């Protein structure tokens, strides 16, 4: 459970209500100029509205990381024997409190969500290979699951005899009920002909297109339908939406700390619910710690740079400089990205890809149909053109219409992000760049010819 006091959020108890106005004004939070200094290493002249892909790390955290790196390089043996495991345990303990886990043993620190997916899917693949699961039993996933997750399913599950059911989610999406209805259909398909659904993989926030999924409701449906295990891929969640692993109720939950939580790349936590422990859950990189539990295995996979896993305390110090802490940051990011998304949609006479409450710190905004984004290749060319010509970094999504008629439909969407370093000018630059392309009569096909 996120503690408002730990996150710097003002308490509303009676004592604080009696604070004088002078006392309240004495609190000092980070200023705009200080935020600018923390991210002054960002390349000048670029509107970075793609925090979702790689995140962003402030200068004070980069400095903390360098101190850890130097400590290792100065005396590796002392670092290894006296500091590394203590430091990782401290980070795990802080994460445990952030996500409301019951015990620190439920929290492992890994490189990223891709590594966590490999851990979970390796475990499932072994069960198929060793005959504990019947050939043809199913894994259910959303069609917009991250590509690395799809490849892990291919590498570990399908080659061992498991089948895969892909749930097609609607987009644009208008309500959570649309998602819930399609998910129920996918589970029914997975259970057809006497099969069992051994694992459901659910995104908390889909990457592309970006939508907040009603994850708690989908996990509950899985329990009702007898799904054996549930893995929530929440790569974008921590720092962007509220995370309470006990409320969500999944067996496995992973979120990157370098996307929306200001850690340097790359670091993620993998939560494994202790009420359903499994000693056969292992890190795919086998070290001398094999067999000592996933958290310990993950804390040592050979000589490498562990500094990104050790700076969680300093990151929490950075976050505490903002009014409201992580709660305040994510609320302001959400409000800002919705406001900027609606501004762009109005300027281009299009729409958002989902209702505002289903946007995290990212939003999908329809592009004018006259740009003729008609394929993934078109989306890639337009993205490159915006970067090279206008200094705008933003992902673009191609969405084919269901009936195949794309002549006057919105088939291209930008995925805009908002993080604390962004300003209104970043989004105005994107707006004006698209408007100039429209004035020039540019289409994605003409960009291909120019190339």
Summary?
This is OLC1v1028140C1. The chain has helices spanning 14-17, 21-25, 32-38, 51-54, 59-74, 76-99, 113-129, 147-156, 176-190, 215-224, 245-248, 294-299, 307-310, 312-319, 325-348, 376-390, 424-439, 444-450; strands spanning 47-48, 107-110, 138-142, 163-167, 197-203, 229-233, 252-256, 268-272, 362-366, 392-393, 396-398, 412-417. It has 451 residues and is of the alpha/beta class.
Overview of the structural elements:
The model is unreliable at 1-26 (pLDDT under 50). This protein is 43% helix and 12% strand. Helix 10 links the parallel strand 5 and strand 6. The longest helix is centred in the N-terminal third of the chain and has 24 residues, at 76-99. It starts with 13 loop residues before the first helix and ends with a helix. Helix 9 (176-190) packs parallel to helix 10 and helix 15 (325-348) packs parallel to helix 17 (424-439). It has two domains: 69-315, Type I PLP-dependent aspartate aminotransferase-like (Major domain) (Aspartate Aminotransferase, domain 2, 3-Layer(aba) Sandwich), CATH 3.40.640; 325-450, Aspartate Aminotransferase, domain 1 (Alpha-Beta Complex). It is an alpha/beta fold.
């Amino acid at each position: 459970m996120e503690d408002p006091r730990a996150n710097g959020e003002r308490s509303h108890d009676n004592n604080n209500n009696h604070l004088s106005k002078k006392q309240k004004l004495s609190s000092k939070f980070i200023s705009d100029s200080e935020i600018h200094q923390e991210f002054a290493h960002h390349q000048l002249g670029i509107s970075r509205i793609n925090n979702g892909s790689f995140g962003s790390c402030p200068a004070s955290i980069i400095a903390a990381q360098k101190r850890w790196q130097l400590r290792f390089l100065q005396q590796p043996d002392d670092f290894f024997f006296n500091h590394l495991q203590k430091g990782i345990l401290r980070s795990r303990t802080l994460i445990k409190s952030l996500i409301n886990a019951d015990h620190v043993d439920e929290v492992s620190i890994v490189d990223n969500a891709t590594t966590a997916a490999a851990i979970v899917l390796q475990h499932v693949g072994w069960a198929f290979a060793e005959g504990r699961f019947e050939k043809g039993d199913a894994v259910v996933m959303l069609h917009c699951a991250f590509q690395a997750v799809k490849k892990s399913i291919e590498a570990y599950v399908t080659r061992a005899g498991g089948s895969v059911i892909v749930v097609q989610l609607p987009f644009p999406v208008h309500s959570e009920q649309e998602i819930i209805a399609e998910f129920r259909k996918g589970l029914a398909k997975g259970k057809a002909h006497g099969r069992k659904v051994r694992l459901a993989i659910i995104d908390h926030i889909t990457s592309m297109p970006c939508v907040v999924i009603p994850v708690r409701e989908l996990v509950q449906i899985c329990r009702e339908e007898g799904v054996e295990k549930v893995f929530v891929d929440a790569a974008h969640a921590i720092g962007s939406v509220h995370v309470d692993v006990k409320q969500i109720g999944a067996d496995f939950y992973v979120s990157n700390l370098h996307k929306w939580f200001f850690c340097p790349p790359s670091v993620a936590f993998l939560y494994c619910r202790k009420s359903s422990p499994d000693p056969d859950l292992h890190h795919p990189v086998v070290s001398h710690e094999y067999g000592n539990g996933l958290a310990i295995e993950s804390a040592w996979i050979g000589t490498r740079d562990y500094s990104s896993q050790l700076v969680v305390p300093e990151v929490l110090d950075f976050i505490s400089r903002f009014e409201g802490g992580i709660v305040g940051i994510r609320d302001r990011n959400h409000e800002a990205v919705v406001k900027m998304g609606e501004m762009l949609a109005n300027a281009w006479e299009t729409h958002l890809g989902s209702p505002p409450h289903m946007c995290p710190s990212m939003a999908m905004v329809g592009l004018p149909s006259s740009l003729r984004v008609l394929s993934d290749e078109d989306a890639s060319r337009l993205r490159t053109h915006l970067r090279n010509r206008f200094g705008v970094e933003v992902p673009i999504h191609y969405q084919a219409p269901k009936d195949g008629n794309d002549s006057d439909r919105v088939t291209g969407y930008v995925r805009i992000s908002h993080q604390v370093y962004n300003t209104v000018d970043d989004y105005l630059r994107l707006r004006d760049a698209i408007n100039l392309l429209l004035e020039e009569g540019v289409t994605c096909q003409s960009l291909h010819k120019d190339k």
